[in-house]
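In the laboratory, one determines a bound structure by crystallizing the protein with its ligand and collecting diffraction data. In a computational setting the workflow is compressed into a single prediction: the sequence and the ligand go in, and a structural description comes out. We illustrate the idea with magnesium ion.
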Amino acid sequence: MTTAPPSAVVLGNRFARELPELALPWQAEEAPDPRLLVLNDSLATELGLDPEQLRGDLGLLTGTRVPEGATPVAQAYAGHQFGGFNPRLGDGRALLLGELTTPDGRLVDLHLKGSGRTPFARGGDGLAAVGPMLREFVVSEAMHALGIPTTRALAVTATGRDVVRESHLPGAVLTRVAASHLRVGSFQFARATDDVDLLRRLADHAVSRHAPEARDAENPYLALYEHVVAAQARLVAQWMLVGFVHGVMNTDNVTISGETIDYGPCAFMEAHDLATSFSSIDTGRRYAYGNQPGIAQWDLARLAEALLPLLHDDVEQAVPVAVTALEGFVPAYEAAFSTGLWAKVGLTGDPDDELLRDLQALLQATRPDHTSFFRALGRAARGDAEPVRELVLDLAGLDAWLDRWRALGPDGEAMDRVNPVYVPRNHLVEEALAAGTAGDLGPLTRLLDAVTAPFDERPGLERYATPGPAGTYVTYCGT
Ligand code: AMP
Ligand code: MG
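The predicted complex, in structure-token form:
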């Protein structure tokens, strides 16, 4: 008996076919000495790909070997960056290789980041350094393990080419998987062309991929918009519950799918504070932790503007339609946030908003480590309040709140299933990235091991559950 040859990876080119105006055929730059740094075996298997085959096919992972039938493209998009509109951003250092159909029938994008300059590169070199690509790998996989919608990381491959930043750094390509790479900025780009047919085709493509139920609505494009508003409201509520700060919520980094995308200056908050902001370029704290729901709404208003010609034949009449739909954000966000927070404190049924508001005020006033607080609260539900009392200075305030909460009978076991022990803490991410850049992937492997099973407390991993040294942690964009 002969074994069947490994099956070839088949990629579709639906985006490029349906939306040629947004798809610039392009190819990845050669990688002089490709070396696989990390491969996501379980994701590969989930996608119907053979991890062993991928290990032997770095050309696929870096885009230098294009599977038959595929048409790699740089995607065009526009975007508001820190509030200012740029009509032409696009993939300056990224390529959509094509779409893959998973064994369970989903269509996903296979995408590269750091694959060389494209016509959208402007002043950029089109490259990415090993460190930031490893950051996207570990943080996006942590988010997935936390149950938060996100693009996934399939692999990081060192290219063997140096990238010039403040110093020379080893370069890498990230192989990314997403439900799609459609963004608010994709619609802004189409709208800015004044080509309503293109805008409609883009919306049809988005409906088909992300909101098929909208097709049967009286106004499918309004239903698509409502779908995106609801998906983003749920997503940002999940970020807020876990203490995630995205850092650069420009409209080109807000997906139509409702997945988190673009792990640049992102970080997990340690001391709970609504003003937490890490990004070196976010000097006005526009994208601070506590601003994220409001900013998501602002970004969704830009999507509404782009969609106006599809919402009503008469643009004047389209505006109130869009405003009403956008007003759905706040109740959707608040429902997702308070239901989620109610679960984090181990309770079921209708949330008691006053109890939750008092908890948030207590957290803001006393700033305990966000992740440790909720995990320690689980121990308080099981009868040992000391761990949580060690985290909070206002003991009288905490004890009064604990008494009211305990009277409702919180379930400590259930809390441990929703409150992570391990998140990618900033000092541990930095440690793993520095070692990975220097060629030692041990710290990254161990960090990944902790954060990809975040609810499962394991002996020996105490340092992954411990806050870093206090101080100002700074993250950088566009690296
Ligand atoms: P980001 O902040 O990663 O979402 O990127 C914003 C825009 O800058 C996108 O159009 C990127 O493709 C582009 N960009 C970021 N870094 C580079 C780079 N090194 N070379 C070319 N384009 C880049
Ligand atoms: Mg981006």
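The CA atoms of residues 78 and 88 lie 5 Å apart. Keep in mind that any predicted model is a hypothesis to be tested, not a measurement.
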